[in-house]
Specification:
Blueprint: H1 3-21, H2 25-31, H3 59-83, H4 86-89, H5 92-97, H6 107-125, H7 137-147, H8 150-163, E1 168-174, E2 180-186, E3 197-203, H9 210-213, H10 217-224, H11 230-241
Antiparallel strand pairs: 1-2, 1-3
Helix pairs in contact: 3-6, 8-10
């Protein structure tokens, strides 16, 4: 990890934490979620409280991550959509698969924000308070067949996340015939850009873990499995095989 960058992020996180502690909780919650421009893109609801994933992911990280970081992608997309109706009229998977055909003036910005929106929408879905057991049924069989079993999946997934230089994501993709594969992507890129479907993934940008784990990314990756929602991931697996999985 880049030491000066890590120090700046640590100081920024400390400043946020200090400011938050000096304000009533309701004031901070309101300040953390500025109104986004209206448009076709909407910030999804978590479905659980900001502190629901503690002690593995802290409440402040969840609040800033879901409201400010994801909210920024929504604001960007709605601003782009004001002058470029192609964004409002296309599905997210299709827009990402064909991002190089987007208008040149917004191409990179829209690609990055579409990827961030898709990645985070998936991410909030596949976590749950207290976790949700282990993979079962057809999903377990696919993990055993394609990824060497659950323990090997976790080891390989954590290893890929630890080796990823800078910011990015680690994913397990799923094909229409149910075959699984492990892939990592930089920045807010997503397998959707390659026409693939995402079963689940983990965010290894520093904003996803730095307030709690600082530079200890491997510890974050190991602890993340405690909040993985295998019931939801199993639903996503079934949807992928039925050709109905979107993001």
């Amino acid at each position: 990890m880049n030491a000066p960058l890590s120090r700046r992020l640590f100081l920024a996180g400390a400043a946020v934490a200090a400011g938050a502690s000096a304000l009533p909780r309701t004031v901070f919650a309101q300040a953390a979620a500025p109104a986004a421009p209206t448009g076709p893109f909407v910030l999804p609801q978590l479905g659980y409280a900001f502190n629901a994933l503690e002690p593995h992911i802290d409440a402040m990280t969840m609040e800033i991550h879901s409201q400010r970081h994801h909210g920024a992608f929504i604001a960007n997309l709605n601003n782009f959509a004001k002058d470029h109706g192609v964004l409002a009229n296309g599905s997210i998977p299709r827009l990402l698969a064909e991002w190089q055909q987007l208008p040149e003036a917004i191409r990179m910005g829209a690609k990055n924000s579409l990827g961030g929106h898709a990645n985070h929408t998936m991410f909030w879905q596949i976590m749950t308070p207290g976790g949700a057991k282990a993979p079962e049924g057809e999903l377990k069989a696919a993990i055993d067949r394609d990824l060497g079993g659950f323990d090997k999946l976790k080891a390989d997934f954590n290893g890929a996340g630890g080796r990823l230089f800078g910011s990015g994501w680690v994913f397990v993709t799923v094909s229409k015939d149910g075959k699984l594969a492990l892939v990592s992507k930089p920045n807010q890129d997503t397998p959707l850009m390659d026409g693939q479907m995402v079963l689940f993934g983990n965010d290894v940008w520093e904003h996803a873990y730095y307030l709690k784990y600082q530079n200890r990314r491997p510890e974050y990756l190991a602890n993340w499995w405690n909040v993985a929602n295998w019931s939801k991931i199993g639903e996503r697996y079934a949807a992928a095989k039925a050709g109905k999985l979107e993001v």
